[in-house]
Design goal:
By secondary structure, the chain is of the alpha+beta class. The protein has a single domain (about 10-50, about 55-100), classed as Alpha-Beta Plaits. The protein has three helices and four strands. A four-stranded antiparallel sheet has the order 2-3-1-4. The protein starts with 9 loop residues before the first strand and ends with a strand. It comes from Ideonella livida.
């Protein structure tokens, strides 16, 4: 019998520089419920980054952990998240990506 492959966690990493503090309020008020519904947990939220090499971040860093890359993608594509995403895109300059962790 083949051994089960353990799921690898996935991380949503975002660096965001808010350009419209009022415009991002609906996103901030609703985003937590959207990722929690997919097993997401916030592991980093803001805090002062301590640059060591390269260009320092220009905004806030947030990292969410999901049970798997499939769950992370399901959250990002979900109707509730897509319904609020436009608020962030219109109100902040950001870079966001998924990265798979180790089991």
């Amino acid at each position: 019998m083949k051994a089960a492959v353990p799921l690898r966690p996935a991380y949503f990493v975002i660096e965001a520089k808010v350009t419209d503090p009022q415009g991002i309020c609906p996103y901030q008020a609703q985003v937590e419920a959207t990722y929690q519904a997919y097993g997401g947990v916030r592991v980093v939220a803001g805090g002062a980054p301590e640059p060591l090499e390269g260009t320092p971040p220009s905004g806030v860093i947030v990292i969410l952990r999901f049970p798997s890359l499939a769950q992370a993608h399901a959250w990002h594509a979900s109707e509730p998240y897509q319904a609020i995403l436009g608020h962030r895109l219109a109100s902040a300059e950001s870079r966001a990506y998924f990265v798979e962790g180790i089991a």
